[in-house]
Amino acid sequence: MSKTAADLIALDETWSTHNYHPLPVVLAEADGAWVTDVDGKRYLDFLAGYSALNFGHRHPALVEAAVAQLGRLTLTSRAFHHDQLGLFCRELAELTGTEMVLPMNSGAEAVESAIKVARKWAYQVKGVPDGTAEIVVAGSNFHGRTTTIVSFSTDDTARADFGPFTPGFQVVKYGDAQALEAALSPRTAAVLIEPVQGEAGVLVPPAGYLREVRELCDANNTLLIVDEIQSGLARTGTLLASEHDGVRADLYTLGKALGGGIMPVSAVVGRRDVLGVLRPGEHGSTFGGNPLACAVGRAVIRLLATGEFQERSRTLGAHLHTRLGELVGHGVAEVRGRGLWAGVEIAPGGRTARELSETLMARGVLCKETHDTTLRIAPPLVIAKDDLDHGIDTIAAALAG
Ligand SMILES: *Cc1c(COP(=O)(O)O)cnc(C)c1O
Questions:
Q1: pLDDT class for 118, splitting at 50, 70, 90?
Q2: What InterPro entries does the record point to (predicted)?
Q3: Backbone angles phi, psi at 197, to 5 degrees
Q4: Is residue 157 in some structural domain?
Q5: Ligand 1, pocket-test mutation among 140, 142, 145, 370, most atoms within 8 A of CB
Q6: Domain that holds residue 329
Q7: pLDDT tier for residue 216 given thresholds of 50, 70 and 90
Q8: Is 142 annotated as catalytic?
Q9: Ligand 1: which atom is nearest the Cα of residue 197?
Q10: 227 belongs to the catalytic site
């Protein structure tokens, strides 16, 4: 007899490390914006793997590219060239208007790579005394889970008991350009920032902030690294969220949707004179830039180059924000976000965001809390307007009782 959902959850609980607290739903199949659990119940996906599924589940063009590559060549390591890497890098650079690409796998690896590149640039190009480079980051950031990255997290849960921490980071208040200016010094290699803080609750900084950050970086010969791993690749209605502020970074980190919901694909993209500081042997990854990842990434780039997904995020996102805005005062304290991405702040005295997520799950809509009082909504950009309305109706009904 096949295992029940309860059996499968029990297996996870017993054999899988308890580093997550998933909703008690066990998924078995998916298509587009819809997922199906092991009992055949369908749910609308209102989270899209935190933007890893921007194109929905099993987008036909992405699956086709993956299957075709599986029939040709999957892995070489970087000991040899292969016929997908250069094309992937050129196409990603052209899409993002950058000059060079450093392919990696996970988002955290891309951020780690950008940190290493910025430090080396500081020593070799800016002339910072060896071992003293600093990187300025924002409070309430989320850049991943490695020991160096949690070293500059301000989330106690992410940090406690994982020290000693990597030195060389300064944390300043997000959205406060004056605080940033005060933290810059001749030793500053880079400022690392999210254009919208997803994990913190979809926090959009004050208008003009990113532009001021850019100007401060220019005035201080400091690199600007923008982490677009969650915000980028059409999530906010533009290819990169930093476009809303008319800001160009020196380095961008990309991930999540770059893998098309199929496999981990990440990259640092940016200036040739910055990424160019790396020499053979100084950095790498066995799987980074593998043929399968490059083939899937190239198919993702083709989808993004049409502009269709940016457009869907803009129009559907405007609709989402209009409708969620109507819930303010009806169980909702505030709605933040951009495009098809929202942080819904539950009014004080209401349910916790976790309880609301569980209620929504029972009603067939999957999304997830971030912190106690924020519901994060990030539907796949392929979602049909009727389905989006169905999800919003379900949220409104759940808040009403
Ligand atoms: C998810 C995320 C990361 C880390 O990506 P992983 O693939 O989970 O390592 C880094 N930065 C941001 C902004 C993210 O949302």
A1: very high
A2: Aminotrans_3, Aminotrans_3_PPA_site, Class-III_PLP-dep_AT, Orn_aminotrans, PyrdxlP-dep_Trfase, PyrdxlP-dep_Trfase_major, PyrdxlP-dep_Trfase_small
A3: -85, 105
A4: yes
A5: 142
A6: 5-59+308-400
A7: very high
A8: yes
A9: 13
A10: yes
